Amino acid sequence: MEPQLSWxxxxxxxxxxxxxxxxxxxxxxxxxxxxxxxxxxxQSLDGEWDxxxxxxxxxxxxxxxxxxxxxxxxxxxTVPGHIELHNDAQIQYINTLYPWEGKEYRRAAxxxxxxxxxxxxxxxxDNSMGAYVTHFDLPQQWAHQxxxxxxxxxxxxxxxxxxxxxxGYAEDSxxxxxxxxxxxxxxxxNLLAVAVFKLSTASFLEDQDMFRxxxxxxxxxxxxxxxxHLEDLTLKPTLSDDFETGLLTVKxxxxxxxxxxxxxxxxxxxxxGATIATQQQAVKTTDATVTFDRLTLPQVxxxxxxxxxxxxxxxxxxxxxxxxxxxxxxxVGFRRIEIKDxxxxxxxxxxxxxxxxxxxxxxxxxxxxSMADMQADLKTFAQAHxxxxxxxxxxxxxxxxxxxxxxxxxxxxxxxxxxHGTWQKLGAVEPSVNVPxxxxxxxAAVLDRAVNNYETFKNHPAIxxxxxxxxxxAGEDIAxxxxxxxxxxxxxxxxxxxxxxxxxxxxxxxxxxxxxxxxPTEIRxxxxxSPTKPFLDCEYMHDMGNSLGGLGDYMALFDEFPSYAGxxxxxxxxQALWVNDEVTGQPxxxxxxxxxxxxxxxxxxxxxxxxxxxTPKPALQEVAYYYGKYDR
Amino acid sequence: xxxxxxNLRVIYGDGVLGVHGPHVYYGFSYDRGGLESLAIDGKxxxxxxxxxxxxxxxxxxxxGNHFSERSAMWLGAxxxxxxxxxxxxxxxxxxxxxxxxxxxRFSNHEMASSVIVTFTYQTxxxxxxxxxIAYTVRADGTLAIHEHFGxxxxxxxxxxxxxxxxxxxxxxxxxxxxxxGETYPDRMAGGTTxxxxxxxxxxxPYLVPQEMGMHMDTKQLTVTRRQTLNNADPDAAPFSLAIxxxxxxxxxxxPYTPFELENATHIEELPIPRRTVLSLFGAVRGVGGIDxxxxxxxxxxxxDATMDHECDFVIxxx
Lengths: 632, 318
Known about the structure:
The complex is a heterodimer of chains A (632) and B (318). Chain A is α+β, with helices and mostly antiparallel strands and 632 residues long. Chain A has 3 domains: 5-225, Sandwich (Jelly Rolls); 244-332, Immunoglobulin-like, CATH 2.60.40.10; 337-573 and 608-629, Glycosidases (TIM Barrel), CATH 3.20.20. Helices cover 15% and strands 30% of the residues of chain A. Chain A is built from 9 helices and 38 strands. The radius of gyration of chain A is 24 Å and the shape is globular. In chain B, 8% of the residues lie in helices and 42% in strands. Chain B contains 4 helices and 19 strands. In chain B, strands 6, 7, 8, 10, 11, 12, 13, 14, 15, 16, 17, 18 and 19 form a 13-stranded antiparallel beta sheet that branches. Chain B has a 6-stranded antiparallel beta sheet with strand order 5-4-3-2-1-9, with no helix packed on it. The A-B interface holds A 427, 517, 519, 540-553, 574, 576, 581, 583-584, 586, 588-591, 594, 603-607, 611-612, 615, 617-619, 621-626 and B 59-61, 64, 180-192, 204-208, 210-212, 266-268, 286-293, 295, 297-298, 301. Chain B: Residues 18-316 form the Beta galactosidase small chain/ domain. Chain B: InterPro entries: B-gal_small/dom_5, Bact_Beta-galactosidase, Gal_mutarotase_sf_dom, GH-type_carb-bd.
């Protein structure tokens, strides 16, 4: 297939040639590798890439992906990183309006009955692009294997070539995109080329309150699939009705060459490493899926915030000669989330959410954050008794989910979706050009985001809620996302706040009544008037500047209403960037509007309980006090 | 009961009523309209006269709520309200304002056990009201300060109410007995009671400089400096000023006035610290937190300017 620039304009083209999303499990060639946590089946491509910036699509280098092309005018850029922080494109912070406000006139395709507007993004003067190139060799032992490349986050639309051959196209900036390289990969001197465009129709779906960046901003790695490979793992741990017995179903989907005589061994270990269950299932040539008999664990050790106990599951694929050809570990936490009598229960106990919304943020690197940043955040969570996090408003880096499993942090795992500027203008609700709304042409794109989120993260016990997105109004498309989650995962709750803007959908969307910034009196009123759903604040206590007064009025609701489940403070960390002061040369923190970026929402980027440099704001002691008081 | 010790030497000057006490000198300026000198063991603590405080720098929530727009006249009142009346009482005798020739009858050896000087300020608000600051110098040299705000219908809510003392140089540290961290009436549950030492005059690095550094429910505060502006004072030993509550007060101790904070859009725009701005408060508005685009501070944390307010502090020369 030939790549088309016009895909940028068409909401119905959001992935071309990508591999289906699958669980984020690690895989190794044997158990020794697994224990050492170093897989010979992955190879990082992070580091310095060759790079050329173009201010618009027409100025892009046309043939840079061809091995023989002249790229002597390329510079280098660090992957992962933002093009804006490489000082090619202007840094901009904006909240609800679209970043092109006042500069370009745009209405999302199909919203006013019109078709795709040719050139809206593909011929736009404000659609900057980056041409990325890297070279790689394959490890010798990867010869004749299936080779893929995984991009963990690329904003906003990307085209990929290998050795001059077009491989695929992807949107959904905050989800992993994986492409099969096998047909064109060589043992040595491969040329991987990526064209990244800042804007596409996906931009309408990614109107989050944040700095608007572009580029390859999360890690990139090559993966090699063994001849037979555990492609996707589905774990469904839960508890019996008396919460004493753990129940676990395990399903493995295989890719590659299935043969008679292959089998998968399952071992379940407790946290001390003692084996408590084993099982073996034969691989069938007729069915790629291997389903294990349900495991039953009497007197199971439950998982929760105070005791995030994880069992370890090990699956090994054994070939016909009896040798292990792949080993896959997974953590299993037994817990049960449900709603009874309008009360959210975890393991039969009322759930109390002492949470924060958390953007991924670093004052040095924007949304490129390190493992050390994540660990520092969890340390702050522990100190301030924060027990829950909403991944606002996109999926986070994969390691964060593992860390939350281990730390016992309840997750509201949110899709990459916000279309704020399509339905709310200057504070007024005006959904005439809302997407996705009920438009069939936008449904597949948002459903794809739901699939990516579910399939990637489904095995993380920390996730209690699937969140359909943020501030996108409500219609058939978001109802379809809700229905999707219910069909694949009835074991978790769905969450979406925006349905309160269109109550016609309240029975189809969201298991919980979720609001943002409702005053305690309004919440009390809802809870006193025969509520039909338990209540939570997906955002509350807007901690902008010197704020967070009155938290006690919210916490008092816990004592009054069992249906009150608490909420997530907006938000965890200020978004501001270190720059050298143009006058003194000293490092200073700058916010929206400080880069001559117009339109901007200025200091509205700073609403954290932490300053942008990860030092605590004075208000954090108030959070620690109340969250500690209700730390049950 | 008659006082047995007339420790205070009173100087009935033509522009200043001077009071010498043990280790301490207070100068009440008639022309500047306020306490202009507070010197302990010869070290001056005031840069300009102490004045009533009505304004705090706008917080992000104030801006979103339009509070500063509604209450803007308090900013002008804080900066510009003139002193309109001065009254002197010595040992219970009301002397009015003892200007010449009235003060010609005094000598250089006038002693007393109690001096009360009251400055009355007329606010530059519409409508106007009056604020009286009564300074009582006691026989032991302590200074009791009583401030009264006269409620007036139609006045907008107050951001704060108290007294602002601007010191000539930057404090090296302060120590207080009260709550940990930065606290406000609607955000003080997390404060832990204790005695705290704070080095320097830290500025809380809010992205946009705004109201900061409040300490609610304080029993005692000691501010320590090492430097004066007196060219004949080479002594670099630390010296302190102690304030006690009756029973408690709120304060902030910053290198900036609310107006300097108000003016800056970034921390780096704030001037080089030169003074110590000690604000003592009897009433503080909450900071709020429901949202930053309109939600008001919860009702109990407003300061109603249609009602009278009082505050009291005692300065105790060590």
